[in-house]
User: Fold these one by one.
Assistant:
Number 1:
Amino acid sequence: MSLERPDPVDDGAVERTPDELEALLGDLVVDRDDHLNAPGFVIRPDTVQETLSVLKEQAGYDHLSVVSAQEYENRYESIYHLKKYDDPTQEVSVVVPADKDNPVSESAEPVFRTADWHEREAYDLIGIEYDGHPDLRRILLPETWQGHPLSMDYDLDRPQIATLPEHANPLQEHHKDADSDTMFLNIGPHHPATHGVLHLKTVLDGEQVIDVEPDIGYLHRSEEQMAQSGTYRHQIMPYPDRWDYISAGLLNEWAYARAAEDLADIEVPEYAQVIRTMGAEMCRIAAHMLALATFALDINGDFTATFMYAINDRERVQDLLEDLTGQRLMFNYFRLGGVVWDLPEPRDEFFSKTRDFLDQLPESVEEYHNLITSNEIFQMRTIDTGVLPPEVAKNYGATGPVARGSGVDYDLRRDDPYGYYDELDWDVVTEDGCDNFSRLLVRMREVEESAKIIEQCVDLLEDWPEDERNIQANVPRTLRPDDDTEIYRAVEGAKGELGIYIRADGTDKPARFKIRSPCFSNLQTLPEMANGEYIPDVVAALGSLDIVLGEVDR
Amino acid sequence: MGAAPAQLFPEFLANAVGAEGLLAEVVSSLIGATVVASIILAFSGVAGPWAKRKITAAFTDRIAVDRIGPFGLLIIPAASVQLLAKELIIPEGVDRPTWDIAPIILPASALLGFSVIPMGQIGPLNIHLADPEVGLALVFAFASIASVSLVMAGYASSNKYSLLGGLRAVAQNLAYEIPLIVTAMSVVIFAGTLQISGVVGAQTETLVTIAGIDIPAWFAFVNPFAFVLFLTANMAEIGRNPFDIPEAPTEIVGGYQTEYSSAYFVLFYLGEFVHIFLGGAILSVVFLGGASGPGPESISFIWFVVKVWGFFLFTQWARAAIPRVRIDQLIEIGWKGMLVLSFANLVLTAVIVGVIA
């Protein structure tokens, strides 16, 4: 069918109007359901693969951000939020309604590998079944769970006991074949290298990894459900701090702030945007420092000095963030339309403290380069291990330092500007090595870029006229966005594209609140990196992905 | 050696009370062995709960134990009580006698090694238990029994991480023991004897005199290349960074010692420290002139202490600074690099000694 369409070249750079897209899709489109951020095309549930292939191959929409699923009174619905890696402002939503009594729709997995986990999650929480999915199992909840928690007829009050499934027998038939003798190994959920409660089902041949399958959900806390039962204005903002809790709090808060502000059409004062930008970059430094520290633990072993050095530096940012927000971890500093309070008094002291930190930072980064990246054993361990080619990274929807370490030049701060980023002078960091080493280098260089951003923000804030220091826009006490408005908005979190999809139903609470976690998509690439490598490389690859289970499981 | 060789420790004891005969020999040997073992165990007792923490803390910008006692020193008795008071958890399915014996073998084998190590003198007392003609071969034999213990622990624990640790221990020891011993052989060629007092004695002469300071003919100065080789192989032998892969807590959760708790864990821990000290002692005997150093011979025990603790400090430094190599890289370094280099060193030394002599 697609062969008949006159579209000779892959012209991802060309921006098409929604009507042109509709023409391209032809009779695949049965209806239009536009979202605030993108045109939405309603298609039949059995044409998902066809539609997505057309959009991917002929219109250049090569990034499936997220699959949001939900249940309506009369139907189920999966939304595929598509973007372009080259220009994420070009978005399109593919809306796939499914039958209320028999919610089945075609799987997008053959077109986008990343749909694998996203559809499993939709099946797990909402109950939509995806036809042609290679492995449609629950992903966040235990396999024995009854019902789908975000579906309408789910009984929230019914207690459920999840029993521990019997341990997989290592000598089962499928672990052995005629030529090799393999061993099944559970890495995690309690293992020093998993950085949280992650469980890797690993099959080994000697020390070599044949197959690794991440098993997640141990830290699932129903964050989406909780956000859906909070009011827009104040009750949701504390939750984002608890997703990526590795001090990336302000970055997460910004994801919600951006989505909700665009949904309710709130303008944020420029002064508040500068403060937000500064705070967010401080969080990024803190998050990257921890990534560096734990990666050193993975490679060097648990007595490494690098870990404490990086933690010391992180501590200094943490102090700044504490001065700014009053909290060390769960900041709850952003408000819709601004921030909760102005910079701490005396302002000069805060500025000089920040500048001290920025002045000392290059020295620290230099020290890390001396300690780890220029160490030959370290290079032996990390260069050309955990290789993630750029095409594979895109296929899995990898973003953030993981994608940039594979040479994918994608950073929402530049490509889909928000806050004050487009006024400032900084660069997007990419490395072409595609290996563990590149991902680490990207983080280390991003720390320096973040420092540049903070410095410019401090300069701006220092000279800001006193009577124009407006930290908060006028926002109604109760927000009730219009019925049936939908939006997907993302920011560049510490780990990548952190997006939020909200559907408003005219009340003061979101009808559907879906979190697009960058770690969730990034973690999916682990088998690609790890298969065929040695156990230590799996540990290194996992460390270089820099996942936070709080954000993976939500 | 200048003066008449000092009496060995058991002989000294027997002579001191004027006893003779087999019984006196046995008793004095036992007393001597107890004293030597106590010294080494005391080293380990200080090293494990206290010195290691303090050293690591100094490397990582921390303070470490300082709450009880001066400089936190009372942590040593406190930690001993705490460790011994822990419940010994015996996992289901462990291979009982093997699992119980493994933690005893590790410290025992390392302690045995000290039977032939000259630990210097305190006054007239020469702390040296025995000086057999094959002393150097014996000490390497004792030291390598340790890997048997690791394999037993890894196998008997009935845990896959332990098994991996045991396998890694074997692979590592095979790859490094040979270069270690071949390098030591080059020293034996110099010294012309396997007897430890002979090896030490060969290092007492003056190599050169620079600005009035006599540089002794320690083999580390005579053949620095062999010294570096030996030091590297020794780090692998005792399993410390960059070669701590049989344990590798961030990969295989502690390897062979994963399933051990309480007293058994303490025995393993102790064994590792004794092993590090034995490694330091061998290094000082073979390359650093044994217990010799400036000053009268009667205080040479101090130099022995300085040397083994210096080596201990070095291992901790490596731990704080050097990344761990991967198992396949380790095997490659061992078989393709170290082995070739150590044989080259051996042949060269043999040729040079042959030409000179």
Number 2:
Amino acid sequence: MSKVPADLKYTKSHEWVRALADGTVEVGITDHAQHALGDLVFVEVPEAGRAVKAGEPCAVVESVKAASDVYAPLAGEVTGGNGRLGGEPQVVNSDPYGEGWLMRLKPVAGALSGAALLTAAEYQRVLEAEGG
Amino acid sequence: MPQREQLIFEYSRAGRGASDQWPHEADPAALADLPAALRRAAPPQLPEVGELEAVRHFTRLSQLNFSIDTHFYPLGSCTMKYNPKACNQYAMLPEFLARHPLAPESSGQGLLACLYELQEMLKAVSGMEGVALSPMAGAHGEFAGVAMIRAYHRARGDLKRNEIIVPEAAHGTNPATATMCGCVVREIPIEPEGDVDVAALEAAVGPNTAGIMLTNPSTLGLFERRIEEVARIVHEAGGLLYYDGANLNAILGKVRPGDMGFDVIHMNLHKTFSTPHGGGGPGAGAVGVGARLVPFLPVPLVGREGERYRWLTEADLPQSIGRLSAFMGNTGVLLRAYIYMRLLGREGMQSVGEYATLNANYLMARLRAAGFDVPYPRRRAGHEFIVTLKRQARELNVTAMDFAKRLLDYGFHAPTTYFPLLVPECLLIEPTETESKDVLDAFVSAMSQIQKEAEQEPARVTTAPHTMPVRRLDDVRAARQLDLTWKPTPP
Amino acid sequence: MAFIPHTQADVAAMVDAIGVARIEDLFDEIPQGLRIKSLAGVPTALNEMEIGRLMGARARADGAPLSFIGAGAYEHHIPAAVWGITTRGEFYSAYTPYQAEASQGTLQMIYEFQTMIARLTGMEVANASMYDGASATAEAALMAVRANRKSKAARILVPATVHPHYRRVAVTTASNQGLKFEELPYCTAEGITPSASLARYEGQDITALMVQQPNFFGRLEDVDALTDWARARAILVIAIVNPTSLALLKPPGEWGARGADIAVGEGQPLGVPLSSGGPYLGFMTARMEHVRQLPGRIVGRTLDVAGREGFTLTLQAREQHIRRAKATSNICTNQGLAVTAATIYMSLMGPQGLTRTAAAAHARTRELIAALTRVPGVRLAFPGPYFHEAVLTLDRPVAPVLKSLSNRGILGGLDLSGYFPELGNALLVCATETKTAADVERYRAQLTEAMQAARAA
């Protein structure tokens, strides 16, 4: 059973979103997603300064058997990618909700409250519906 | 099987070399005109080994391979049939090897006659109106085919059509090819019995449809029973039908793609027409087209005027999608396919599809009788079929990959694993027509034996192979710590 | 027939096991109306003895003329060991090495190939090969667009001195994806690309610059200046090189201050026969930072569960079978057998042998040029340095001269008038180490007569 921390928001495409104190958000992939992909061998994160739209592919996670785009959960400007993952993609496997975060975004005005994000309970139901 | 062979670089000793093979040293004055600024500072660090050392090294490497010549190789969707030795010998006659690609046609009439006749025979077996031989692999032929579809719509001023429909079970090259041609891919689902979902197809086609890419029999090894309806729907919507010839061996001599309504087709000569796979190539992906796509064929083609043959180029086909190779594609492979087709002739060609299908259905029946599950039990197999080991994975924790690896220990190359993605824990098995009943029976025994092992001592299976030069390799390490070229370890 | 081993008893037992009466019943899912009516277009079968006679006659019909054509395909000595080993069934009849444990021979050979090609080109990483030099060039253009994220224009500068067929293949391959190829003019007096011609692109969004060395005319481009200009402007450099030449010429990894970004070329000169154009192999290399944008197969070294070294296909998530519509290319194969031949060839040649081959080829071409330019009406088109191939200008149309030579058993080179009409009566000629001094003299003597015959006509 994969972990779904209660204090985060989620997307149907298996990203999580954490609101930070400074008004930016942190984005990563869920425990379910990292488990489904298997051992990650490569992670590509966006460069700071890039403007992204909600639903736009903006990072890539790769295992030996699969490659998957990561979609921006909401519109905003990338304030930074997790540089550590370039050399240690396995951190996403070992700590998907912590050290394995992918990028930080500064949401455009109203994007966070307006985005159709899921609560932990709602995401849990998505996983159950997928048979996970 | 021999164990590990060291790298050629580890044999290297400064000053050694296969000097019998080298030309005499040129007068250094002859190099004086090459400006120093454009010269290489130090010679390239190639290995320095004697001829016998090199011969032994590469011979030993060859012995670390499974191959058709040494092992049953039932790799689904790859048609690993016997590659007749005559095809190699007569394609490698010295005059053929020495001929320069830009030599005048007058010194190539023998070659051009072979290629022209190959075009004609491929037309006859595929039911198409025109054939081009230059694509150098199946994927290259696919590219040519979809590029022709685009060129056709464009030439009619129908500029919107950029969607290519593929069934969800399609080979990965289909969507990749569509993208290379600047198209958008729309996937449509498969029905429970394995046919294309016709209702979904009807909903998917429209004014943006460039065409559909289909394999028939499909990647599930099943004949698309409603193919005529599919053709009608796509044609009525203004799209064209692309036939991926990966599975042509199943129907060779029985049904022709042209008669099924396909407008364009590629044929993997390295599958159906038995040119070697060569450890991954060179292949040849000749394309065939119906009348309306003939003007768009890639160049060069071979034309005949009276008793003379000549290349047809852009000057002859101004609407051609253009050139795909520096010269004429994989000519030597084309010669091998030509020889194969002449050896089989009309009579042999008819029996290919028959016996490929017989072998697949027999093997499927035997494996089912031995207790293995197939996902489409009510369907005939084409030239290949799927076994699913979902039950074994669930109950015994032994996966399709484990079975595949253990088969290597029994002296059989593994079938294709985990393709098509639609069927969990699958093995895609294609025996081909050139295997005897005895070999198929031995394969069934091995599978049954592995099943028994999976039940009684599963670790034997899950840690296989045990008799290969290496055990299972760490793919994750290979991708994380890239080691793609050899570097000497510092002393 | 058709290499099918079944006895009648086998067939009877097999249909019985399936539960049908005869083979024909296995096709009962195929609509009757679709069944084949006739295979009349295929002749009746020949046996092996008959095919041997037929192919022998066809081969002899093509003859064995003395050839001085180069233009991207070069006749070199091929040691007997090269194809003797390459056509062993274990290499010849194996498939793509998906089951790594049962394919260590092919995998290790490709790893050795990648290493040799990387060393020869001075680049950091090589793939397992593309179809040929032209398709590798086209794929390099597509790769440059992926790799150069700063550029949005998908514009590639292509000197007119790049092989004309390569340029056409690049257009066929890449234009559907919106790439724009812009031709850089060359200096008709010098036969090279003047770096001054780049000035007009100053400040524009350019994705990559191609440079062929030696160029199609055999001339040596100022690769350092071209590379430095591009790299100073974040424009990627795609080098197209002849592998034999790299024994003597500066490898693309060392061009300019920082080297090329991608280097490709035709591997045919490395032990692969001319064979009317194929199968050849395109080699493809890059700087390590671009490895994930490389198309095609790549082999890596790793460890097995027991800690022993072994080889496997790696970085497969770039490829079509995983990434489907988002793959780097649709290519699934490499030119395996040609790669095997090239790897054995490079091992037998080694640094000394390849250097001697390059030097001997170049020396022979210089003798050829010296001899032919003594023939009245023949001169060297471009004054500067060339490598083992050069352009001559005749004082009369080339085609009749070549026809006359061909009637005398000599293929005198490639008529450039269809490709480069502005050069007038231009003829591209090449000699390699396979030509002797007597061959050169024969060509000179026959050219003298052919020129006179052409004038008389």
Number 3:
Amino acid sequence: MTASQGIKYKAEPADQILVTPLDSLTLVYQRRSGITHIVAEPAPEILAAMGTDAMTADEVAQRLAAQFDFDGTQAADIIAARLNELADLGLVERCHA
Amino acid sequence: MHEFRVQVGPAAFRIGSQWKRPLDQLAEFYRDYPVPEIPDYSVRLESVSLLRRFIRPSVAINGDYMLPDAAPLPLAQGLLAAEMAMNLQMALGWRRHLLLHASAVEKDGRALIMTGQSGSGKSTLAAMLGHRGWRFMGDEFVLVDLDSGDAVPFPRLISLKNEAIGAMMATALDGRFGPLMPETPKGDIRHMVPPADAIAAMSRPARPALLLFPSFGFDAAFREVGPSEVFMRLTQASTNYVALGEKGFSTLTRFVQTVPARAIDYRDGIEAEALVNQLWAECV
């Protein structure tokens, strides 16, 4: 069991961010802070997949695995690391169960 | 306190000075520019102390927006101090447009914008192209309209540095040049009045059509610069991107998504002009 398991994450509401994909990176402007974040995949995909739900890293991985062709169980740790980075940026919120 | 007023593009300045000479120089070089009634910014050229107004006079730059640690300049560089003060007001205070530290020229209603570090040659290239069939729009700031995305001219005096001084004096034989100011903090500087058509059309915007990142001193070459890299470079080249908030974001993202960008290397003006013409034909 990883440290991130059990922690739920909630994405910044879609109406609070402006997402602009460019060639290799994606810009995420956060209305609340006025900060422009420059992120690479899979960060934009994670934010889009989470919608308004509070989810664990495993749940996000499973949802992404259903959309993209990969094994969700193997990707959970990677997704957890990205979620923690997004939480540090303020683009997702950690909601402890 | 002596006073001089000038309108440059959309910005109106009032310059006050304890000495008459820098304002006489400004009045001479800006004689074809409009005189505004209500200034956007006031700047003041003042002595650092009562004594230094008369003995080895030294000009401190004050105004609506100031840098507390800006070093004073000798009175002989008073014109430079006034230009720096006006630039400072724009860099720190302007909110009506997205402000890019860049030069620009126009042809057929479309703007070629050039940005880069000091010494990249963006100012010299704009000055040179302004004498070779392009309309000079500015060598310091490009103002991007927050609604239309158009580039708005800001054709202040052209600031030529070091080798560019001789190059432009050879190119613009009918040009009006300011006094040579040797050994300023930025090297040798000589100002040049923009061509008459640039001043006459300074309220006419142009649609950004090509962005160049010039590098002086390398064999002629160019490469495509992708939108992500352009975005990062332009956020660094903008002094008010963060202050503009969401408007700044939407304006800059539209710019990087619609304006093709190339980095160019060149060794002299002839090479640069050939590259510019080639890329203009390919991209615009």
Number 4:
Amino acid sequence: MTTATRPGVRARWTLIDIVVVVYALVPVLWILSLSFKTKETLTDKSFIPTEWTFQNYVDIFSTNEFPRALVNSIGIALIATLIAVVLGTMAAYAIARLDFPGKRALVGVSLLIAMFPQVSLVTPLFEVERSLGLFDTWPGLILPYITFALPLAIYTLSAFFREIPWELEKAAKMDGATPAQAFRRVIAPLAAPGVFTTAILVFIFCWNDFLFAISLTSTTASRTVPAALSFFQGSSQFEDPTGTVSAAAVVITIPIILFVLFFQRRIVAGLTSGAVKG
Amino acid sequence: MAEIILDKVTKRYPDGALAVSDVDIQIADGEFVILVGPSGCGKSTTLNMIAGLEDITSGELRIDGDRVNDRAPKDRDIAMVFQSYALYPHMSVRENMAFPLRLAKVDKKVVQQKVEEAARILDLTQHLDRKPGNLSGGQRQRVAMGRAIVRSPKAFLMDEPLSNLDAKLRVQMRTSVSKLQRRLGTTTVYVTHDQTEAMTLGDRVVVMRGGHVQQIGSPQFLYEQPVNLFVAGFIGSPSMNFLPAGLEDGRLRTPLGDFPLTDRIRRLLEGGSAPREVIMGLRPEHFEDARLVDEPGAAFTATVEVLESMGSDKYAYFAVEGEAAMAAELEELAAESGTAEMADGGSQIVSRLSAASDAREGAELSVWFDPDKIHLFDPSDGRTLTYVE
């Protein structure tokens, strides 16, 4: 961090940084710009709207579908994240700390699930959920989300658990803690950054999913925003819904940004420093 | 305050490896006992079994007369100081030290008072609100000690608590550990691989090797009466010199020359079945510059290879021609200390001479030694032939 940077090097890095940021942000800004344009100026090819309007936002919230889809998305993603992180924490702790029969099989299977192409599961899942009455319900989406989020959660979390010196747990035991107390008061606080990181990743995965959302829902009862977006229509069939779709796209990024900002503050690097020497 | 008894304690891992075998140790109330040995000798495993962090395969562990084999660590009322200190990084020093008391549901006021008292003893008062990450190694070490002493446990277990400190701090902490233990009078079991720590700290020292107890005794006793080659070579720094020797008609044939056995040693050998080939051991301080000694004794002449002047005395190193002493124990010791092996065969002798000696590097020196101070060992099993029962 203290390397003396020559002006040339600094300029080069600044340039590269700008290219990357522009490349990543232009489509987002374009959507943002579209969402503020009126129907008439939508196709004027101007990056900055010539006529500003909030009408698109008013429109999407005055329909029935979008607010309902937003509620579905938030509810389903939060519940799936919570369950996946709790289960993942326990599984990862066991994998990082214990030697139990079938450990390698467990790790292997979770890796297998992570690699399995989801698209090939859609049809069987559709049949299974229909016969079980889970089709077009919240659990109908939460269950597959948990299944596919768990390997991710287990992998991320077990890496974090391995970082925590085992001696801390022994020390807690010697200090008179039960295993549950040792976990709750010593291990869990130290694993918190890992848990929050995992929560963010899992939440984003559930929030962004389109494949399951479109295949396993049929009504507003459980349709999430990515799926609902594809059903957006203009007020007549000759009307282009681009403005409203853009507004909805902007709206659904907001919870993710909030979620990340909220948890990012809890991700403190180097939390275990000072625990053990060397 | 407790008496700890290990009765034929054995640890066998599920894969069949025997870590600790039939260890019998009686630790009296208030005693400071050191477990010492090279790495892998089972000393830490033994400590962990006392702590309850490892299961005991067979045998019995009694604390104050109660069998505690199956009790969880928290029910044994023992505190432990870890080599890595194992401080809780998310808690301040105060919270770290209060943690055992809080778990024991001690009244808040009492916790406060006890933590502050411990902090005063350990000179940590001004650091109470800092996190371990902001402390120096020595301070962390003291916090680890503080966490152990706050709840006045029956016993302290210390697993190489000083080995992460730099040399100077280690010597300093060694004295404070010793003082602290005397002041509190709490039974302490201390594990180390450093024989200096073992010699200076303990009331009694337990030397372990390959899961077996070799010898138990006061540091001085172990130094003067090692029961076998391993203990003889492990205890003492610089370590004992070993030379191959032959026993013949009451005379000892050594690479340093032939010497008659003294009466004391002859008596010790009588009755025993001493082999003809033995290993002779002689401590560095039992040599002296022949010019400075009037007493009768044995003498030889050799060239000083290296001379280290310590001020108070001089260490002179001589090369000795011929075969080096061979025994399994010696090989193990050499491997442990990393001194395996002088390439050109032969062996080296370290002698501690008085500062008045005018020994010079590369010059010949006439060296005297006390033949009554020699130890003789059986090379086949390492047992001391001159052990005084």
